[in-house]
Amino acid sequence: MERKQVGMNDILPRELIRRIFLRVPAKDLFRLRFVSKLWHSFISDPDFAELHYNLYSAVSSRSYLLVKDYTSAYCVHLDRLFDVAAAPPTLKEVSLPSRKKPYPHFRLLGSCRGFVLLKEKPDFLVIWNPVTGSSKTISYSHIKVPRDDSIIRYGFGFDASRDDYLIVLSWHDYYIQHGLVCFSLRTNSWIDLDAALPETRVRWKQKLSALFLHGAIHWLCYSSRDHIEDGILIFDLKERSFSTISMPTQLVGCYPIYLITLGGCLALYSDDKHKTEIWVMKEYKVPSSWILMYDIPYGNNLPLCMSNGSDIIALNFTPRYCKIRFAKYNVSGELLNYSPLPLSEYYYFHRSFSVYTGSLFPFPCDIKDRDKKKKTVQSYGEA
Length: 383
Known about the structure:
The chain is α+β, with helices and mostly antiparallel strands. It contains six helices and 26 strands. Strands 12, 13, 14, 15 and 16 form a five-stranded antiparallel β-sheet that branches. Strands 21, 22, 23, 24 and 25 form a five-stranded antiparallel β-sheet that branches. The longest helix is centred in the C-terminal third of the chain and has 19 residues, at 364-382. The two termini are 42 Å apart.
C-alpha cells in the first residue's frame, strides 16, 4: 500500500497552527499564503490580520522606511539593528508602487497600521502596504488646492469607529481661507469637511506630514501673531473636529522643533550640532505632563523609537562625510553603540522617511468586494 504523506495540517490542531502564525513576522506570513488552502484562509482573514498587528505593535516590531532621491525606497528592521547574535542588518531595497511612469517622483508623508502614504507628483496620493505590495492611487487634481505645496498639510489615519482609513488635506491660501477635505478608503470618495480651525494656527513648523496617534492626526504648528500659542494641532477622526495642545514653555519660540512619537506618547525634539533634547508628553493631552526625558550631548540625531523600554534608537548624521548611521542612547543621554549597518550617503533621502509596523491588512474596499462575492456565491448555491 502507498503510504499517505502526513503534513503539519494533519498533525497539529487548527487553533495551534493559528497561534503559531500569530508569532511569525508579516512579511514571512505573506509568502506562506500559498503553501496550502488552510494557511491561505488563516493568513487572509481580516480578523487574523488585526490580531497579528496588535501583537506585533505591542512588542514594538518596527521597520524604518526611507525614500531615496524620490525614486526608490529602502527598509531596515529597527529591532534587529543592535542584536549581536543575529545576522548583520542590511538596508534592503523595496519596490515602490509603479504606474509605469518613466520618472516617478515619490515623497513619503506618513504611516498608519502598516500602510504608508506617499505623494506622487503632480497631484496623486498613493496608499501602499510594503508587506503585501498592494497599493491604491488617488487623484486630487479636481480639488482646488493652493499651488504652493508648502502650505498644504497632509494627514493619514484610521477611524476605528467607522473601520475606515482617511487621508486629510488641510490648507490656508494667501487670503487666510481655510480648506479641509478628506478621502475615505471605505467609500472610495472625497468628503468635504466643515471643521473650524483655531484662527491663530495658520503657520506650520513641520511641513507636509503629520503623526497618527490615539485616533487623531497631529501637526506641529505656531501662531501667526506671536509665539505664545505655539503648540500641536489635533484633528480627531471620529469627531471630525480640531483641538490644540500647548508645548513646553521651554520650547516656545524655538526653531527648529520636530514632532515624533516615542513609546506610544507624543514627543518633541530639538537638535543642533552639539546636543539633542527630547521632551515626552507622558499623559496624552495633559500639557503639565511634558518632561525632558533625554538630554543627549551629541548633535545631528533624528530619534526614531524606543528600545528595551527606555533606550533611544536614532538616525545619526555625520555632515563631514555626508553619511548616516544608526545609534542607540540610554535615558542618561550616553551613547551605547552604533549599529554595524554600513554608513550610507544621506543627502539623497531628503528627510522622506517613516517608522512603521508591518501588517497584513487589506484595503477596506477589498473586504467589501470579497464579502459581496461570498454572498453572490452563497445565493447561487442556495438557488
